[in-house]
Amino acid sequence: MKVKYLCVFILSCMSLTVCFGKTIKHTVNTNAVERWDVFEVTVKGKTAGNPFTDYTISGVFSSGKETKKADGFYDGDGVYKVRFMPSYEGKYSFEITGSAIDGVAKGSFQCTAAKPDNHGPVRVANTFHFSYEDGTPYYPFGTTCYAWTHQTLELQKATLETLKDSPFNKIRFCVFPKNYPFNQNDPYTYPYVNTRVDGPIKSNDGWDFTRFNPNHFQLFEKHILDLMALGIEADIIVMHPYDCWGFSRMSIAEDDLYWNYVINRFSAYRNVWWSFANEYDHMESKTVEDWERYAVITCRQDPYGHLRSIHNGPHFYDHTKPWITHCSIQSSDMGQVENWRKRYNKPIVLDEICYEGNIFHPFGNISGQELVRRFWYATCLGGYAQHGETYIHPEDILWWSKGGVLYGDSPPRIAFLRRIVSEAPGHGFKTVHKWWDNIAVPDQEEVGSYYLFYFDITRPAYRNFQFDDETLYKVEVIDTWNMTIEDQGIHKGDILVNLPGREYMAVRLTKQ
Amino acid sequence: MKVKYLCVFILSCMSLTVCFGKTIKHTVNTNAVERWDVFEVTVKGKTAGNPFTDYTISGVFSSGKETKKADGFYDGDGVYKVRFMPSYEGKYSFEITGSAIDGVAKGSFQCTAAKPDNHGPVRVANTFHFSYEDGTPYYPFGTTCYAWTHQTLELQKATLETLKDSPFNKIRFCVFPKNYPFNQNDPYTYPYVNTRVDGPIKSNDGWDFTRFNPNHFQLFEKHILDLMALGIEADIIVMHPYDCWGFSRMSIAEDDLYWNYVINRFSAYRNVWWSFANEYDHMESKTVEDWERYAVITCRQDPYGHLRSIHNGPHFYDHTKPWITHCSIQSSDMGQVENWRKRYNKPIVLDEICYEGNIFHPFGNISGQELVRRFWYATCLGGYAQHGETYIHPEDILWWSKGGVLYGDSPPRIAFLRRIVSEAPGHGFKTVHKWWDNIAVPDQEEVGSYYLFYFDITRPAYRNFQFDDETLYKVEVIDTWNMTIEDQGIHKGDILVNLPGREYMAVRLTKQ
To answer: How far is A457 from chain B (nearest CA, A)?
Structure first.
């Protein structure tokens, strides 16, 4: 077989500047990549016809510990890319093949140890919780900015600045632009090429759903990396119904082309999660068969098994489906967390529980107190809640959709809760019931090491806790809103804790 | 047949002072009684053996419009009483018979027109609502003081003073004394005679469940009349589980004797409602068969068909039972009101929705805001809510059980809501759904005359309402907590209402 090397560039995504929005030039061959970082192979390939549909490109990456096939994608200007995330340290070899190129492109690289902030992709751990692949617990404290990557570069930058100082370690956002109240501006880029010469851009005319706009995806994956640098998981919403361009009503072939493209492009980023949809059930042209087909594509094309979920409008998807790794739930009925855990036996992530704000939509006008209350309630039941903010703004820049700046009261309190959760022994909470309390305790430990009593809107002036006469507990009264922790000393036996008779208090008892 | 008049006194309960705690002396024969007042016949009868069990006494009362049989009761000191509530104006004749007396006692009286404040007993009206028998709408705004009649006379008086200036027109309270946290004092009177000579009173020893203590019942019915004078319905809790004397664990025969005694004694008071139990399902010695037997007794012995309900602990009684006139519900899940209306097709009275207070029990430590929120929410869904208050007190005098003084923030706001409900056209609310709103509208009127939008904890900064270009609406912004009504004028078409972005707001639109 005649082997021909065709313009092979080997790049590590550690050298970020070369990856986005620029024509790739000949560069140095960085032949080392960090574990769980992106190793990217760029090849020049065929351009006749439609390179997005007419050719294939894929790679096989092997070390002594794993062999993985990863399909690549066309990135415009005759450039094809194949990306790979190595899961082990050591030497990897690879071969790139496909109808896009003549012959085989071969090479090798060294996978080095992960740096301290790189813990690998997030996995489900202990049934109801998450950890990074290196075993470090990961507690999701997410936020939602559906269309932040579709705003001006200046606003995108502001969003990243805000995220940097926020408590959030996960963000939900859409590949496709969004058309919805407060979201009437044109997106910064479009995912497809439009062939019309004039006419309104907010129209489903003229789109060629077989020709992606590489700039759109380059910008998007730059932001995946920006988030990675901030330690934030990118919970990518692949489809959504809030569309005026036809992106939500493409044909089966067009949908599948899109899903393959998205999964092939983004899978190698370790901080990617696949959120199949925002409110799948509002996408009236899609059936369960469609969603199940997307699941097949995702499971096949993503060699790393990133987390997969599907977010509901009025009706839950069937979260028992084996491809769903965790429940992504829209509901304000926090009290159901325990039932959902029992029903689905998966992590319960309450990705939408109404937003702090004052818009007229009821999903977007609860107080900071109420949002923080829902976080605490869901957390103490062994679930995970997600933030969003929707304060009206003279330029319609609402965090929930466009990002920008946070105005609300909840983020510092969410940071405080994240601290409380991180300080708890074990790995995540479950609830035990005693008398009328739902008490958060470590999910995998014997009950007795730690108790977190959250009193929610109830305002007891005192509480008694009964223990034996030997076990000592450190007693702390937590004001979840004012973010104070009052040390009430070490006690045993019948412990009386005086409380201020205010809402949103908690008591933490830690075995000594 | 030999007819013998045996010391027949005819009293109207309008002359209240002769009815309670005093030995009845020969009095004038007040041979006129107001419609829906109590006409009472007192006879001296047999005392050998046990007059509570060994003899019968009953009356038949006839006018041209009704003939009713009413059983009487033994009131101690050789006195038997038969009470009757006439439902029509005009001349009534009566005959008293039974084994307690020799022969028949006969007489007649005139039933006069009801005075302006006397509207008769409360009935179910329009399926989900209530009205007095004269057709005047009755909107229950109740409170709970379980054991107020068992406290000192001074405290009883204070409770009545508080009620006088309160918004409450219904009160739930128990015939039997209560033993529960914050309720550890001895009751002022006991319902039964105790035959022990010594030993603790808080014991189930020595009680003779076949011998009532007339003083206890005389005091109780004095309070029914006190409430009547204040325009307050007496929602009498016949049984409850919080007992250390054995009153909740009597035999079938003892129970039935008690039920007959209570119903025979109290039925003639027009403001009586029968609450079969507080938390029936916590009375472990009672079965559904027992409750159904009490229902048979109640329906048979109460000639007036007073309202009947049964209040739950964790589990609802089957409110579809035909003897249940309305659902008496303990739940904090206000949002279910509409479902319960559909399920039971009866008025939904949320008799226990947690209390304003700060005790450690979670049923008794919500804020005034939260209690008022629950009132508004339940009301706008077409139900009725009930108040209670449980602030810790140096002498354990908590309103919810003992009465006394109200300390909370909710009563004036409940008065404000009662005003809003009373001002609405029609007779009671139902909910219509539009977009994401639950909107209270008059239950029996064509939609369009009146809308009450309650925003609960949501805080929209504005709302649009779309109407046609002809219909004029008066627009008012209601602050349900600060009790203000802001008139925003008369509008039509697309109406924009600016709101303050606070919780607990409402908008009232009234067709002009």
So the answer is: 6
